[in-house]
Design brief:
This protein starts with a helix and ends in a 6-residue tail after the last helix. The chain has one domain (about 1-55). It is about 75% helix and about 0% strand. The protein is built from three helices and no strands. Helix 1 (about 1-30) crosses helix 3 (about 45-55). This is YjiS-like domain-containing protein. InterPro entries: YjiS-like (IPR009506). Pfam families: YjiS-like (PF06568).
Length: about 60
Amino acid sequence: MTNLLKIIANALGFTKKEMEIRQTINELRSLSNRDLDDLGIARRNIEEIARSGSKNKGYYET
C-alpha cells in the first residue's frame, strides 16, 4: 500500500511542478520581444529556460 501512496504522491508532485512550469512559460510568452531581450531571453528558448530553471528550484529555498 505504501508503494501506491508513493506513486500517487509522485504523480501529484509532477503535476504541480508541470503546472508551475506552464505558468512560467505563459508569463514569459506574454512579454514583448523588447522585455525578453532586456532579460537576455530569446523567445525560442522560453520553454527550455522555464524547464531548466525548475530543476534548480529547491536548492535555494529555505
